[in-house]
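We modelled the chain as a single entity of 279 amino acids. Its sequence is:
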Amino acid sequence: MSDDTPTMESGSEDPDGERDAGGAGRRRLGRGLSAVVPARLIGSFVRAVYPRLEPELARLEDFVPAGGTAVDVGGWFGPWARRLVGRADRVVTVEADPKLAGVLRRAFPQAEVVHAAASDECGQIDLWIPESGALAGISSVGGGVGRPVTVAQVTLDSLQLKDVRFIKLDIEGHELNALRGAQETIRRDLPNLLIELEERHRQMPEVLGLLRGWGYTGHVLLESGWIPLAEFDLVAHQRQTLHELDRGFVGRLLRPGRRYVNSVLFTIDPQVTESTAHN
């Protein structure tokens, strides 16, 4: 990834890698595919099949308002960008991995790609890119496995986006920092937020507390539909189903098991907003 000042370009994380908790067989498969299959073809495959693992994608109209600006933080191979470009007037994708940012630019010329890591301050940071490639490993900031590359770091507030109606965050445990760096934008526009929230990243209480203070309440999508997060023990569920991730992206596609829920939809609570406005 370049260490230049980030720019928006028309044109961001990993099928297995983004949520991997192990699985030597999956890693071998991922390394093999990454070595012989062009990234653009891997991207096309991921975008086509990913709704089978992330059903929120099939319910986009539930929580992504039409028009305005939609922000996809952690664009990976573009499963969210693919659908957002048909819903929002403007789509901005933030992706730190240089190879994936290139995939996104080529796949979505109608979107804007910010080649940087989203955080709570601007500058530079080390991104650790797995040698096995994006199909089989996790790119992470601040430490990890693989080779470190210095990349640009931005706050969402620094992008000066307007009329933001939806933000998706999936950046492997760096969500809290990204939220803090988007405080002005979020508190001004009150967009719906879809956030990857995982107990294993040890940030759940802080994220929930921050969003609660901003007037947001959470919901999760189950087979029965959307239910309040307050009525679902997300921590217990994730501890019981974490082993599903060991089977990897391809394994879960070929032999679906119990779903691992880690996406939480946050919407503004009108009662909290009204109360805050009168204080």
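As a brief sanity check on the tokenised model: The longest strand covers residues 147-154. The longest helix spans residues 24-36.
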